[in-house]
């Protein structure tokens, strides 16, 4: 097989574009409840960001008929890396579309969108509009006090294939869940934290969740308290709790369309060149919740469909393995 072109130099996971069926209802959840800042609004589109985000957005909500992931987006180091992404994904046989500045997502410059080998719609871009510095605008911080987007979690039927794809893009691996036969999950990074992307085993391609970072664990608790106060506790799916993997403090919510979001804080540094992968045994019931709390079935089974470059929902393939069927203490749902 001839040598592949050089992969693009990914800096970080930057934003996701989600299709929502009712933009006003989504505005209530993501802006009024969670406190994301509105950077841009136009007919049927909302561009939102956390307080630490210095570029145009971390989340784009676009009103449409079917709740789905339109694309996830990685920022690359240079404009030339957008060209590299186009060459690389063309060489691996992916559908590729170049999107000139002004013709794609508001605020984003020249970009390339692909359907990657895992079936996910992914954008690579460098140029994006700058935004007002809100890092110390404590007067504007509300709800979950979200700082920035931290990661994407994607559902894939073949975890080793996902691992190989992202390893080829230069991602490191911080943690895995394994046994002597299988890899059940993996967390991979380009920025120097636990992950930019994680893989959950299951029927896919589907989007499991977007992880939004907040600075303090009391903001995670405060998010749950706000929902309780509003008698909207039904939006809480899992947690609050302490993860085994990543050591982060977390709560998972489902938005009005069922899109899952994790409010996440206090993971750790992974930037040394010899950083070693920490491997959890699938039979350790502290792996997903360090206190041994059960992972409810919807967290393993439910996820968001993804669109192809034509905007059609991508069919999914079943997974050969099912972590939730592994009998492990509190969260084994199998026999
Ligand atoms: O961000 C994450 C960190 C850890 C976990 S887990 O539930 O601890 O595996 C899940 C997660 O991928 O959402
Ligand atoms: Fe996560």
Automatic annotation (TrEMBL):
Keyword annotations of the record: Aromatic hydrocarbons catabolism, Dioxygenase, Iron, Metal-binding, Oxidoreductase, Repeat
Pfam families per UniProt: Diox-like_N (PF22247), Glyoxalase (PF00903)
Signal sequence segment: none
GO molecular function annotation: dioxygenase activity; ferrous iron binding
Coiled coil regions in record: none
Cofactor or coenzyme needed: Fe(2+)
VOC domain: residues covered: 12-127, 148-266
Keyword Metal-binding among UniProt keywords: yes
Domain of life the protein comes from: Bacteria
Family: Belongs to the extradiol ring-cleavage dioxygenase family.
Assembly description: Homotetramer.
Protein name: 3,4-dihydroxyphenylacetate 2,3-dioxygenase
Organism: Actinophytocola xinjiangensis
Taxonomic path: Bacteria, Bacillati, Actinomycetota, Actinomycetes, Pseudonocardiales
């Amino acid at each position: 097989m001839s040598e592949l072109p050089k992969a693009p130099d990914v800096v970080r996971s930057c934003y996701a574009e989600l299709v929502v069926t009712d933009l006003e209802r989504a505005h209530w959840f993501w802006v009024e409840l969670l406190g994301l800042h509105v950077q841009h609004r136009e007919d049927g589109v909302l561009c939102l960001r956390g307080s630490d985000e210095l570029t145009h957005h971390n989340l784009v909500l676009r009103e449409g008929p079917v709740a789905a992931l339109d694309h996830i987006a990685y920022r690359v180091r240079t404009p030339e890396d957008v060209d590299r992404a186009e060459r690389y994904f063309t060489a691996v046989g992916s559908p590729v579309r170049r999107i000139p500045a002004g013709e794609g997502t508001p605020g984003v410059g020249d970009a390339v969108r692909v359907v990657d080998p895992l079936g996910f719609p992914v954008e690579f871009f460098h140029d994006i509009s700058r935004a007002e510095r809100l890092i110390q605008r404590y007067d504007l911080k509300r709800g979950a006090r979200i700082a920035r987007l931290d990661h994407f979690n994607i559902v894939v039927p073949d975890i080793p294939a996902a691992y190989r794809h992202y390893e080829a893009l230069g991602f490191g691996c911080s943690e895995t869940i394994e046994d002597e036969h299988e890899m059940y999950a993996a967390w991979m990074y380009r920025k120097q934290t636990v992950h930019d992307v994680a893989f959950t085993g299951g029927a896919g391609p589907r989007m499991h969740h977007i992880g939004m970072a907040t600075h303090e664990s009391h903001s995670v608790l405060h998010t749950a308290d706000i929902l309780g106060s509003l008698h909207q506790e039904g939006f809480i799916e899992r947690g609050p709790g302490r993860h085994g993997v990543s050591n982060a403090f977390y709560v998972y919510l489902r938005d009005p369309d069922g899109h899952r979001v994790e409010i996440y804080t206090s993971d750790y540094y992974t930037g040394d060149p010899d950083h070693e992968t920490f491997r959890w045994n699938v039979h350790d019931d502290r792996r997903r919740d360090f206190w041994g709390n059960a992972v409810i079935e919807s967290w393993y089974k439910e996820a968001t469909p993804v669109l192809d470059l034509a905007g059609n929902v991508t069919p999914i393939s079943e997974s050969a393995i099912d972590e939730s069927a592994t009998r492990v203490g509190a969260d084994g749902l199998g026999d």
